[in-house]
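hey can u check if this looks right to u? its 378 residues, i copy pasted from the old doc so theres a chance i mangled smth
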Amino acid sequence: MKLFFFHLMPWPYLDPDFDKTYTTAWVKLPNKFYDPEKGNKLYNRYLDELEKAEELGFDGICVNEHHQTAYGQMPSPNIMAAALARRTKRAKIAILGNALPLYEFPLRVAEEISMLDVLTGGRIISGFVRGIGAEYHTFPVNPTESRDRFNEAFDLIQKAWTSREVFNFSGKYYSSNYVNIWPRPLQDPHPPIWIPSQGSMETVEWTAERKFVYLQTFSPTSQLKRYLDMYKEVAETQFGYKAQPEQLGWAVPIYLAETDAKAMEEARPHIEFFFNKLIRMPNEFYFPPGYLTRRSMKMVMESKKGLSQYRPLEQLMEEGTVIVGSPSTVLDKLKHYHSQIGFGNLVCMLQFATLNHEMTLKNMHMFATEIMPHLKDL
């Protein structure tokens, strides 16, 4: 199993009761609540935590993209990857990922990922996403075109990475008379590609067809199993191959302390703030009209139905959406879920919401010393 440390870089300084005035931390929460002086210190703290993960032995460190939200302070994950490039030497840097339909011309993504791959000596993992529904309230992109834009942008990027001659690209959304990127990626034919997802049918099928890594994010374990099993079935029945564990990933918040009771006490305010305040938004933000096809709508709505309800830590733990406890409890749960589901990439979110630097470092150290050695050989 490969183990990754994932960071959202959240804004932890919101009044806990902000949602009494503002229904969501996305899109419409005024930026008067952001303090650039605190932001300077916060970015450097978060980069320190990502760099510490390499020192502790994680196989990779992960950044991602969100816009106009306190949920995550990375509108450009490639900038964060660049900041990490020279301060790390071994760990993979996974960008999970660039939201392709939101780019006016995605050839820029091909160039930036190529630069990062060369700069890091071939340590980049390139994730691609469509961007969650809220992003389509921020950018003037028709959500009904989201998937077609994504597919066309990806085709352009992949061909730009792999072609050794100048070519013309003429699509419905993106066109260029001369595609000829300098530099091209160090990894051949290109960096590994990961596809994080909420679980739409089209994404599962698209990813399985190309044998890319499928990463299920922040989901109950029943839904995790459902989607990873779907990937395996699609791979075998539609595309004639047996999916391997290294093609499957799970992103999950984890918190450890010396005892189960202490872990729950310490994690509760931060986990509950994350799931019941930061991640919540109106349904029209999650799923703007046309963002999902009809066949995917039912499945995704079912897997995300709890997002509009208050969920205490106990419920989140029972669902398997988070894992909290002593080292023995956390290890037993991870081993159990692995034996039942068979994922080969575990993406650990060990900092979330308002969890401070000291608690984050302690959580990271406990995971690295008490959990990681027992998972690497699974």
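The radius of gyration is 20 Å.
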